[in-house]
Write a structure and sequence with these properties.
With 356 residues, this protein is of the alpha+beta class. It folds into 3 domains: 7-115, Butyryl-Coa Dehydrogenase, subunit A, domain 1; 120-210, Butyryl-CoA Dehydrogenase, subunit A, domain 2; 213-351, Up-down Bundle (Butyryl-CoA Dehydrogenase, subunit A, domain 3), CATH 1.20.140. Helices cover 52% and strands 15% of the residues. The protein has helices spanning 7-23, 26-33, 41-51, 69-82, 88-101, 104-115, 211-245, 259-288, 293-318, 329-340, 347-351, and strands spanning 120-123, 137-140, 143-152, 159-166, 169-175, 181-185, 194-203, 205-206, 249-250, 253-254. Strands 1-4-5-8 form a 4-stranded mixed beta sheet, covered by helices on one side. The relative contact order is 0.12.
């Protein structure tokens, strides 16, 4: 790929950023996380209706926009920068799992609603862990029993997919969300919503096709998009730090003029730019089904996760005492770094997948 955005992609990024600057400020986001839904439902509706973010990676035959996951990654980077509380990752990962099954009838039934903005969730330990995660729900005679823990937006999903262990291995099922018992799970980063879903002989419809291949596709897509979120969050941390050190005065000088702090912020910039390059490469590889997709995605996950943690930690340090207070936005950046670190596998788990 060319490491630059096309004119249309630049316009997309600018449009999303402009909307988020108006609608996803700190006050709005904090209010959204304390609302009944736990996310900004109005913002999500606007993003879907006016820009079509949920439909980008869905084929036109299923009422999607027919673009690719790369365009979704551009949106994810902007959402990461804004720390916006919307269910993009949850819905896209569920859609990718559906597309990966090859079940055309079910795709035609469910994907149009996801493309339109209905919240979708995938109840699978692989969302909060590596792709090899073992299902905690058991299937027998198309009925599910067990508990799926920490399901991203699991208690607000209109479309619910569940991975369960069947007699012939892991399988993917569609479940009526109202038939599951959902309990919201508190999270460090309140802009991400999780729930534990319990099934007790719950009726389910098995999805045809290769579930293993579908979950592999969903995990690659989710991992790449989380890397994009991490890039956006790291850029936000850097920008906030540069602005703060340009205003904070100590010993009669703004602290940003001290050489030692300049070096630390230069190192932060290197982490951000290298993260952006590998995140774009990984997302493009997933979108185009490149031969080196798995290597690029594992590389992005291993680098971007650690880089965001490092940049967020430096940002807190360079903000001094106010950096650790709940009221200051930089603490939200730090919590986002911690939370994203846990999704789709830890960096060291992805590094273990890379060839020596």
């Amino acid at each position: 790929m060319h490491f630059g955005l096309t004119e249309e992609q630049q316009e997309l990024a600018a449009t999303v950023r402009t909307l988020l600057e108006r609608r996803a400020d700190s006050t709005s986001t904090r209010a959204a996380t304390e609302s009944a839904t736990g996310f900004d439902a109005d913002l999500w509706q606007t993003l879907c209706e006016q820009i079509g973010v949920a439909a980008f990676a869905i084929p036109e035959e299923y009422d999607g926009a027919g673009f690719s996951l790369f365009e979704t990654g551009i949106v994810a980077e902007s959402l990461g920068y804004a720390l916006a509380a919307v269910p993009l990752i949850s819905s896209v990962v569920a859609a990718e799992a559906l597309l990966g099954t090859g079940d055309a009838a079910l795709c035609a039934e469910l994907l149009p609603s996801i493309a339109g903005g209905e919240v979708a969730a995938l109840a699978w330990p692989g969302v909060t862990g590596p792709a090899a995660a073992v299902p905690t729900v058991v299937a027998a005679d198309d009925r599910l029993t067990g508990t799926a823990s920490r399901v991203l937006h699991g208690d607000r999903a209109s479309v619910l997919l569940v991975v369960a262990e069947a007699a012939d291995g892991a399988a993917l099922y569609v479940v009526d969300p109202t038939q599951a018992t959902a309990v919201a799970t508190p999270a460090m980063d309140t802009t991400l919503r999780f729930a534990d879903l319990t099934f007790d002989g719950t009726p389910a419809r098995r999805i045809g096709g290769d579930a293993k291949a579908a979950l592999h596709r969903a995990h690659l897509a989710g991992t790449a998009l989380v890397a994009c979120l991490q890039v956006g969050g790291a850029q936000r941390a850097l920008d906030m730090t540069v602005a703060y050190t340009g205003e904070r005065v100590q010993f009669g000088r703004v602290i940003g003029s001290f050489q030692a702090l300049k070096h630390r912020m230069a190192d932060m910039l290197v982490e951000v730019e290298t993260s952006r390059s590998i995140a774009w490469a990984a997302t493009y590889a997933v979108a185009t089904e490149a031969d080196d997709t798995e290597i690029l995605v594992a590389s992005a996950a291993s680098h971007c996760g650690d880089a965001f943690m490092k940049v967020a930690g430096e940002a807190v340090q360079l903000h001094g005492g106010i950096g650790i207070t709940w009221e200051h936005d930089i603490s939200w950046v730090f919590k986002r770094a911690q939370a994203l670190h846990q999704l789709f596998g830890l960096p060291h788990q992805h590094r273990a997948l890379l060839p020596l």
